[in-house]
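Technical note accompanying the year-one report. For the benefit of new consortium partners, we illustrate the data format agreed upon in the data management plan: each record pairs a sequence with a structure-token string. No post-processing was applied to the example shown here.
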Amino acid sequence: MARPRSFDEATVVRAARDTFWTKGYAATSLDDLTAATGLGRGSLYNTFGDKEQLFHRALEDYCAAADEGLRADLTGPGSGRAKVEGWLRASAESVAADEERRGCMLAKSTAELASRDPVVVARAHATLDLFQDLLTDCLEQARREGELLADADPRGLAGMVLAVGRGMEALGKAGASAEELRRIAESTIAALPRP
């Protein structure tokens, strides 16, 4: 008869997520994972299969939280333009506050694994597509509300905003100052054409 698990699977996945996020996939050893989770190798293998499967669970956990945060930021009350501007400013502050310079786990994982891991590629596409769709919806709302030029291209502008957000994360990892990041956010806001 199998013994009941004496650990919380979600807690283990979060501990693994933080380890992969900090070190990257290749640099994370099974010893790192056992130390972070408090589980032995046998328990990790029996529960999650292997390192790759645990990584996929950890990445899914990260992306699900990111998706939820994006929805909260970009679908709540307020004007469409205010939501986009608020997101850009909050992103600059968040990147500046990342003292460990871990950046985005999805971006790090995609850079490391996209050439050989279709699960990572599919998850990256799903999250980035959701992000661009939410930004497009906000900018279409801004256009309807008269806060964006009537002939502006919300989808194209959403792509620009998304690229700036991803770029700020890369610059933050490279040590950009909070002032530089804020200036980038404000320049992007100014580039969204008002009527």
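Partners are asked to follow this layout when depositing records. The longest helix spans residues 118-144.
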